[in-house]
Amino acid sequence: MAFNRTEGEPAYAPADPGTAGTGTAVAEQPYANQATQRPYGVDGAPGAQQVYAGSDGPWQPWNPTEESLRPVRGKHRVAKQRGGGLARSSTVLGVGVIAAVGAGGMASAQSGKPPVSISVPDIASVTDTVAHSAKALVGEDSGSPKGSSTPLTSAGLTTAETAAGATNAGEALRARIIQQAEAQQDSADGTAEVAAQASAAKAAAAAQDKAEKDAAAKAAAAKQKAEDAAKREAAAAKLAALAKQYTLPTSSYTLTSRFGDSGSLWSSGYHTGLDFAAPTGTLIKAIHSGTITEAGWAGSYGYRTILTLDDGTELWFCHQSSISVSVGQKVSTGDVIGRVGATGNVTGPHLHLEVHPGGGDAIDPYAWLTSKGLHP
Question: Quick check: 355 pLDDT over 90?
Fold first, then answer.
């Protein structure tokens, strides 16, 4: 066990066998590779001088006292060892080895032990070997360096970038990032443009489809309108033709009672025909061509003439003052068949006209005359 001591502190030698627990201060001696004299010989006889090297030799027990171990204030602080200690030790060791080799390749210590031979390789051969290894490491033997001579600023450059003249890896990386960002932006712009074109095409298709539908609807409406106009024209032409075939039963008249009027004057409780009030003796004409199927007295109808048309419709002319035709007679439109009178159940001279399609129940004579192009 070693103790640290500061500069100026006395060193203590082993205690004398006759003085237990005390030590004698002696002059400071080197510790390593130097001989130290001990006060006693090998056999313990006083005065015999035995030389020991380093820590060799018999040491007597050392019993320190409180007084001998009392520290001197401020003297035991050890300066913090700074870096480089290992390098300095290595340097000292190297110098020692070279000195030993220079002395004859042998190193001996004065310790009383037989010397040991130390074999050290020749410095020249070691130097050649190291130089050869260094050349092999850098690739000088093969003619091409095995390491990379590329400067750090150009590390990471691709072949294309180097061929393009790029020399700075940071700038090349920045250029690649900008190029990638521009490519992504171009891709996004292209996608947006494609989407916009698709949307525009869809809108154009929808507009075209709507325009086509509107045009078709407009054409259909125009066609329907034309068809309706054609139908109206056809109906008007037909009515005009019928008007030439049909005629009103009398002239100089006034419409009085209409179909469906109610009152106690009629046995059925309502009026079943259309009354044309006119002076007595006013001519009564055949409304359309047909055959006279009845002509004579008919009770409350007075003198009545029935004209049956070709479609089976019966026209009744009632309350006549005189009859000008006979049963079975064929008449044409406008032929005189009788005269207005006041016979039967009447309150004044007039023509009572009834229409019986197919010989059945009576219908409104005004509507029937209108359907034939006549306007009473």
Answer: yes
